Amino acid sequence: MAMTMAVSLMVMLCAFTVVVGEPSLSESDKILKLPGQPPVGFQQFSGYVTLDSKRKRALFYYFVEAEVDPVSKPLVLWLNGGPGCSSLGVGAFSENGPFRPNGQGLVRNEYSWNTEANMLYLETPVGVGFSYDSSNSSGYEVVTDAITARDNLVFLHKWFLKFPQYQQRDLFITGESYAGHYIPQLAELMVQFNKNKKLFNLKGIALGNPVLEYATDLNSRAEYFWSHGLISDSTYKLFTSACNYSRYVSEYYRDSVSPICSKVYSQVSRETSRFVDKYDVTLDVCIPSVLSQSKIISPQQVTERVDVCVEDETVNYLNRRDVRRALHARLVGVRKWEVCSNILDYELLNIEIPTINIVGSLLKEGIRVLVYSGDQDSVIPLMGSRALVHRLATEMGLETTVPYRVWFEGQQVGGWTQVYGNIFSFATVRGASHEAPFSQPERSLVLFRSFLKGNPLPESF
């Protein structure tokens, strides 16, 4: 299927030829200054890339050049998951971008990833954040993984028309959660294209707390709950025998929850409590927004969200008219910008499509892969990710090149890591949530720096 899509898209994209050295088309997207922004020495850009001018479909991006010597730094595409959550609001303004909203303005994030790379944040798929499809007045059509991968590929190719100086740059793709579907599928299309015409200089992908194999990832939640004291012994037994989590989610998405699964999950929910953030079991909830929080962390909503106290700041900032004007953004078909889209109609059963096998095909092409886990996340727990990485490495015959050990950030243990064949890595980020750069920014930056350079994580301080 990927090959068929790649061939058909190749015909379309060949019409768009990037000529390195031609005048940049990006000047109209340059951000002069964001409202309340502290002084910086790097350039910022944001705006739209039109995917289909006939149907008026466009994806919104935010791009920040590296703080120092951007010409020598790689290009990194960041994708948040959900499906349906914003890379602008979550990734850029809550996790690893240069600023975070604070009151009426912005404050610097000293652990921004643009200290190491040129960072490109994409609001995808169409219908997320400021991205839009103005041809659908009656509502958005169902979006699938395949459509998202295709659109992201078209976006990136057309983005190079605006920024031709980045076409030959080393390219990495990073992201988290449902981006465990977005990123491998996009990378697979890139590899297929490159077999016919070298378009993308893809060097590696990094996947944070990713959905890679539905049953393994989701069912590790029971062990995580039990091992962290969130559920009782008897409930753990029910949650692993009578109705596991992957079965419950599958029935829930098909609107056919069985009585036994309903009973088991009600018991799990009661014991874990709605006042514990499942995306970080050690994080206190935001009491002033407890009603909103209780909806966000409801286990019936298998989507990626952030702590509402941080979310409120971001929502308020990005819904200011002066901010939208500075970003060259507009609202199309919605009344306000949302962290996670409430108009996107995503084919949620796509979660059952495994992508760990695509990761294997990328490794065979020589593309480095890092899978990392914030170890306080119970939504996509580290146990599932670690098991999937080890299984794939074994199937591929990759020898352990860095045995399981601690790694350091400063004088503290930053987490644990293991490397296979000097190309496939697993790492935990100690004390980190589902959104690791949000809760452990300094440790996540150390992880990111090592990933870009292809170096093992520091084993001493």
TrEMBL record:
Gene3D superfamilies: 3.40.50.11320, 6.10.250.940, alpha/beta hydrolase. Keywords: Carboxypeptidase, Disulfide bond, Glycoprotein, Hydrolase, Protease, Secreted, Signal. It holds the Pfam family Peptidase_S10. GO terms for cellular component: extracellular region. One of its GO terms (molecular function) is serine-type carboxypeptidase activity. Its EC number is 3.4.16.-. Residues 1-21 form the signal peptide. Its main location: secreted. InterPro entries: AB_hydrolase_fold, Peptidase_S10, Ser_caboxypep_his_AS, Ser_caboxypep_ser_AS. It is found in: Secreted. GO terms for biological process: proteolysis. Probable carboxypeptidase. Belongs to the peptidase S10 family. This is Carboxypeptidase.
